[in-house]
Amino acid sequence: MVTMALFTARRSTRNGETTEQPEPGRGVRATWRYTVGTIAAYGLFVTAVSTLVMLGGGEYGMQLPDLVILVLALTSAASLVRYCWFFRRGLGGGLPARHYTLWLLLPGGALWFIGLGQPHTLWVGAVPLWLACNALAVVVGRRPRWWILGVGLVVLLVHGPLGLLLGHTVGGPSWEGGAVASLAVWALMTPMLFVASIWWWDIVLRLDDSRRTSGELAVAKERLRFAADLHDIQGHHLQVIALKTELAGRLLDADPEAARVQITEAQQLARTALEDTRALVHGYRTVSLSAEAANAAEVLRAAGIECSVDVDADALPAEERTLFGLVIREATTNILRHSEAIAVTLCLARTGTGSVLTVINDGVGADARPGGSGIDGLRRRFEAVGGGIEVRQEDGLFVLTATTPGLPGTALGASGASRATPGPVSVPAAPTETAVVSSAASALTGTTGARGDRT
């Protein structure tokens, strides 16, 4: 629950304000868990090694200083892991509440001072404070980040010389075995791991924002297209109607018969405009199915989604092309706005005397719903011509299937009789809807698997 609550974090803007961001997608959440898990595991590992070095170089048995070191080391490790969750805001995301920062720095600072009191803890006692400085450098801005890393490096390096000035000598099993040398290499690699990992996480957030923006732009583009079509229809007809009614008003007294003709033509234009508007609203204007499929593939690929298209609309009548074009348009919009897909398949095939269009994507999420208002509208349109829309989830795939029973004017129905020949003719069996869906699902699974092999 704590993890999910942190995913509703806020992103900082240039002027210091914060804005609520929508919950990221499944892949983004997985990337975040991997990133924060790697940083936390690295911090725990280095803290554990430094603690063992500090405990292993003194007298035999657990002494009071050793107990204090152990408690402070555990507190420092816990505060470091807790502080890592604030990295989700990205580099320079801003400092959290003050007590979190104090809890991060105070145990490491206490270990730094205690480490000066024993020869086997020189330099090693400064490692927890160095890790805390690196964690603090991630959440602050660019200029303070370099100051914090510089001061932290100085504090790390002067720890040993200060101990030597206090009369201690460097030595012990950890020094002779090379444990301290290895710890020094890991400590110097810490800024690269912390900063570089969160820098990469920031890039992932930007890419996810771009994906969301692509979906919103696709919806906005469709709205603009509809507005342009409506303007073309209404603008021309209304302008002509206005001119004819104005002319009829002028001719009403001088030539009533001519005025009646102008009024009749204006009425006819009004009826034509009304019919065109209804056709536009109901989506029955001629749509190029091939163009719709190509546009859908282009938009999906621009959003980083692989798209496989197998749509041949040459043999379909205009009405079927329009219906299937609306399905592709609605499915593409839903995938961009509500899905987390990485691969999509569009497949159109003949089934007996009808046709079936299958749209499959692998973006099924925990909150995926089998339908919506757009799908319901398409279902009513297909049912009006004897077809249907089916939406289902199977094997981690989201399948949208649109079928038509074979509308008048199809290549099979229009020309089959004229080409009929006497005698039995062997006709290969048309693929069933189940076979079409299975074939498309296999292609999609292969595409997804190929992506997984490449990664």
How would you describe this structure to a colleague?
By secondary structure, the chain is an alpha+beta fold. It has helices at residues 2-6, 26-56, 64-84, 98-115, 127-139, 142-165, 173-177, 179-254, 256-281, 289-302, 318-338, 373-384, 411-415, 433-454, and strands at 10-12, 18-20, 306-310, 343-351, 354-361, 388-394, 397-404. The strands form 2 sheets. A 5-stranded mixed beta sheet has the order 3-4-5-7-6, sandwiched between helices. It has a two-stranded antiparallel ribbon with strand order 1-2. Helix 2 (26-56) runs antiparallel to helix 3 and helix 11 packs antiparallel against helix 12 (373-384). The chain is elongated, with a radius of gyration of 35 Å. The two termini are 30 Å apart.
Descriptive key words:
455 residues; alpha+beta; Single alpha-helices involved in coiled-coils or other helix-helix interfaces; Heat Shock Protein 90; 5-stranded mixed sheet; two-stranded antiparallel ribbon; 9% strand; elongated; disordered N terminus; disordered C terminus
Q: What would a concise description of this structure say?
A:
This protein has 455 residues and is α+β, with helices and mostly antiparallel strands. The chain contains 14 helices and seven strands.
